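Ex. 9. Protein: HD domain-containing protein.
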Amino acid sequence: MALRIADRLHNARTWQFVEPENARARGQETLEFVAPLAAAVALPAARDELLHLSLRTLRRTRPTGRRGRSRLGAEERDRSLRSEHLTHTLLHRALDALPERLRERYAEEWSADLATLTGTLQRIRFAAGLQYSARQLSSTPRS
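Predicted structure tokens for HD domain-containing protein:
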């Protein structure tokens, strides 16, 4: 299982060179199945990177103009990658604040929620709000 996860991680690092439709399908599959599997077999670093690469691929491969190619200039791409990194960092800090028993469930849910948000500011606000949610969830008595 670990070998299969490592193979997907290796492939995920090259998705920018794959046709956008294929990259999008692989990113979605990884987000839904492979990243949670990595968490289940105690590979948190692989899970984190798979989530990051999947979300980045899903955002990058959205059709944005002629022939589905991005119209972003280099400066805008850099800004987008910085905000993506910030969002990823905030998400994982929130997940780390949760009790272990809740992490996998909320990693999937929050990652899916983030993937649906289109604006940079929307994603950052959502990820920042997760900090509060995680504190609330971790202080809730177990029932």
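Check your answer against this statement. Helices lie at 2-12, 20-40, 44-60, 74-97, 100-116, 120-139.
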